[in-house]
Amino acid sequence: MEGLKDTRGQIIITMALMISILLAGLSYVYSQNLLAGTETSITQLNFPKNEIRDLRRIAIEELTDYASEPSSFLDRAKELDRQITTLYALHGAYASIDVFDIKKSVVGGQETITSFMIRIVFSNTEVEYEETVLVQLT
Amino acid sequence: MRKPFLFSSHDSERGVSILIEYLILSGILMIFFAFIVLQFNDVLGKTPLSTTMKNQFQDVGNQIAVKLTDISIIAPENGYVKAKIFMPYTIGDYDFKAEFTQVGGEYVLKISSERAGKSEYIPINNIALKVLPVGSTFSITPVHEIEYTKYSHMMPTAVALAYPTTVEVGSNVTFDMTLSTGEGDLWFRWDFGDGSSYEAKYNPNNPSQSLVEHSYSADGTYTATLTVWDSYGYSDSSTINITVIPQSQELDPYLFATKYVIPEVTEPDNPVQIVIYLRGGGIIEQARNISVMHVIDVSGSMDPDYYGTNGYTLYNSSSGTASPSKWENYVNVDSSFSSLTVMAYSSSGKDIDLWVKSPDGDFARAQYGITNGEMYFVQNPVEGNWTISVVADYPTGSDTVTVEVEKNGYFWWWWYFSGTLVSSWNFALDANASIITFQIPIVENLKIEVTPVNGSKELHLWVEEPGGALKGPYSSSSGTYYSDSNAASGTYTAYVVGDFPYGTQEFYITADIAKIDAAKITAKTFNSFLRGTDQVGVVSFGGQGSGGATPRITLDQPLTNNTDQANTSIDGLYAYGGTPLGGGIKKAREELVANTTTGNIPVMIILSDGNPTITSDGQASETLAIQEALSEAEITKQTQVNNESILIYTIGFGSDANATLLQEIATSPDYYFFAATSEELQNIYEQIARELKERAAINITITDVLTSDVTLSETPSNANVSYVGNQTVIQWNISSIRINETWIGSFEVVPNTEGLILTNVYGVSNVTFIPWPFTGVNFTTIYLPVPELNVTRLSPEKVVLK
Fold it and tell me: Which residues contact A33 (CB under 8 A, 6 or more apart)?
């Protein structure tokens, strides 16, 4: 009779072990399910499209405005670049706007800027963006 | 009962029975266990794992699709975007792969695990990219990214311009390529059409160096060709016709018009500039001389001495922000304070202001004056930190200031008895004025005033005169200002001091002069545009005698070629009395009739700031004075001098001017101008001076009708835009273009289709004008050329997952 009781105990232990394994497996699967969808949400929130669009808009609009005064154009463009870099650094990103290839005309007797190019750079931990924009003014 | 052979006892039988029972039970349990395990594996293992993989595959796939969408929003026309992709090494112990592919003609992103036999598909058809993304990445690689690239090159565009386009044999033509465009360094070559050519590198920093002069040795029509090329080997050409006439042939004023699209080659949806170019031509030596009479209102309203502030006009202005020069500290007030006294005084007597702010935020100016300073006193002060501010109310220099705080002082009647000294400070306080300088010529009246903008904080103004004397302070709140009669010419330095303890204050500062001063300055500016062969004279009209009701109409300067002499006469004008405008017109007409040089254009420029008030025979009636002015103007317009009508320009100066009357007096309403300020008056005189030179064309209308292949993306300035059917009509109206004057109109369009397209409709896109010598109303039409725009995909975009 003593042996019979020991055997039944083994069954109980075996069943308990089996249920524990199943519960552990279940919790692992469940934890993986919990993570599903997070990357999509993070991407939707983190992608800096507005920062890049703002940077592009500021660069083109401001520099086009500055180009009406050819003598101070480069100085003002450099100052704008410095301010942009500082501003974006405050938000944990690198941004710069570099003006080059400035073309000038003397048609009409006055020296005017007819076109220039802007290299716009943005970079943070997830996205790297670089664009060269031609601004044609004439 | 017979016992079984193999069993010797009851216990043994039972043992065997139990063993068999155990074995059977174990077997059943093992089967059941195996079944449960299999079911659990399916229910709790495989099924959840499958769901997990599906979810996580979709998560990774959606992440890539979302990034692809975001990239498409900011996709550069010329550049790249790299975005990191985050993928777990494994999902459910299975590695996997992400790749762009096509399934059933649909663009999809496939996430799959070969070992797990699982795949998920994310459709990406709707993402606004023009190309199918390519590439793949495995989850076990450490870095994943999606990269968008598009690199385009701006093809060079040659814009050939030359002036003049009609020229005598042997005279120089300037060939101008500086409107040409391209990427990076550009070279150009002019083939002049007579066998000669010129080649050079375009220097954008000094575009004048790229102007080429060339003359032709024989008459005829030559086609000059401009070729522009860049360092990448791309090139473009454009031509312009030059008409060369014999030296003996007269060259009447003419108008040249052409049109370009820049650049000529572009990508779909990229804007291009349309440029319309007009230039007056002709032999400028044939431009005619003028005989001009200044008719200047010298009534009392032109002078602040008689007309108060309305006699002033703005000469110059500036703006800035004033911030006070301030020292600040605090004292802690506790229950031992029955009263609080703060005293501040300067050592050398410069003006300082004391402000005190209580712990509950109220601040107040000190109530009592003391020697070289101010004192604040309050009984039963609120406990806490009291802020003490001392503001420097002086424009320059520095002073040493002492601040003392006492408690438990008291007043007996008007006598203050000191309490216990709690704190004291001693410090230097420097002035902090905003400094603005004005260059002022000699004027009869000068007024400099500062006004707060976007606020009403107190500002104090000091003005340092050219001789060095410092005048002030003038308070913005009480409306006081600096003024001087017979002011010397030179630099006037204004010091604006913020007399407030907190914040800043924006301000607007003006330098006003008498209207008579502005009239003199601008009339003399006009004279500076005249040549030695032009004539200039001066008539003034005002009043004299008691009340100024007696007309004072004087020929201050008969017509002369000597502008210095005329300027001296203008300097001698003074304002007083009524406004006999009609008499002034009559006097000027008589001078033009008597002394205009043969061949000169007779011109009268009338400046007035108000209604006529007296007639030339001394009747003080505004109605009669207006009637007389209109009558004299009509007679003047009918008067022929050397077979030419007298041109009458009128300028209303200041808000009191009678615009309706002056428009009627002028040759036509276009000859009337209004000036609110001295600067505007100067611009008008300059404009009249330019207009009086010979013109190449008048009443010019430029019409450009866009085809439906392009869309106007930016409305051009000073143009009327209308839409007829699917065509856009852009129109400019210009009163005149002078010889050697250039007019450029430009606007931006975006192509609607790909391929070789036309930007405007031939025939209806034209320039109409009345040609020289401007007799009659017959218009000449120049049809604008139709530049072609090549819209093509110069370089494809690429999207790669890797």
Answer: B48, B51, B52, B55
Which DSSP string do the residues of B721-787 spell out, in sequence order? EEEETTEEEEEEEEEEEEBT-EEEEEEEEEESSSEEEESB-BTTBEEEEEETT--SS--EEEEPP--
Q: Using CA atoms of B602, B607, B610, B614 in order, give the dihedral in degrees to the nearest 10.
A: -50
Binary contact (B29, A43; C-beta < 8 A): no
Inter-chain contact A33–B45, Cβ cutoff 8 Å? no
Whether B273 contacts chain A with CB within 8 A:
yes
B74:A104 CB<8 A: no
Q: Is B66 helix (H, G, I), strand (E, B) or coil?
A: helix
| Domain boundaries along the sequence of chain B | 33-150, 152-245, 314-322+433-512, 326-430
SS3 category, B74: helix
CATH number corresponding to B314-322+433-512: 2.60.120.380
**Which amino acid belongs to residue B364?**
A
CA distances from B348 to A63, B402, B430, B475 (A): 51, 11, 13, 23
DSSP β-bridge partners for residue A103: A115
**Domain B152-245 listed as CATH 3.40.50.1860:** no
Only one residue has tokens 């320059």, namely B396
User: Taking a C-beta distance cutoff of 8 angstroms, is the pair B223, B749 a contact?
Assistant: no
Chain segment A39-87, per-residue pLDDT in tens:
656 666 678 888 999 999 999 999 999 998 888 898 899 999 999 999 9
Task: Sort strands B144-150 and B798-801 into parallel, antiparallel or unpaired.
Answer: antiparallel
Q: Which helix (H) or strand (E) holds A34?
A: helix A2-35
The domains of chain A are located at 2-45, 48-136
Provide the 3-class DSSP secondary structure of residue B794. coil
With H, G, I as helix, E, B as strand and everything else as coil, classify residue B408: coil
Per the CB < 8 A criterion, the answer to whether A71 and A65 are in contact is no
Q: Which residues of B touch A40 (CB under 8 A)?
A: 59, 62-63, 66
Spatial contact of A91 and A105, defined as CB atoms under 8 Å apart: no
Cα–Cα dist B35/B736, whole Å: 101
pTM: 0.55
- When the pLDDT of each residue in chain B is averaged and rounded to a whole number, the result is 86
CA-based nearest distance B676→chain A, Å: 26
Q: How far is CA B28 from the centre of its chain?
A: 91
Contacts of B36 in chain A (CB under 8 A): 18
Same fold yes or no, B152-245 and B326-430:
no
Cis before residue B773, ω within 30 degrees of 0? yes
ipTM reported for the complex, 2 dp: 0.77
Written as one letter, the residue type at B451 is T
pLDDT in tens, B399-453: 999 999 999 999 888 888 888 999 999 999 999 999 999 988 888 899 999 999 9
Per residue in B501-524, pLDDT tens? 888 999 999 999 888 888 888 888
The domain defined by B326-430 carries CATH number 3.90.1150.10: no
Q: What is the pLDDT of residue B166?
A: 87
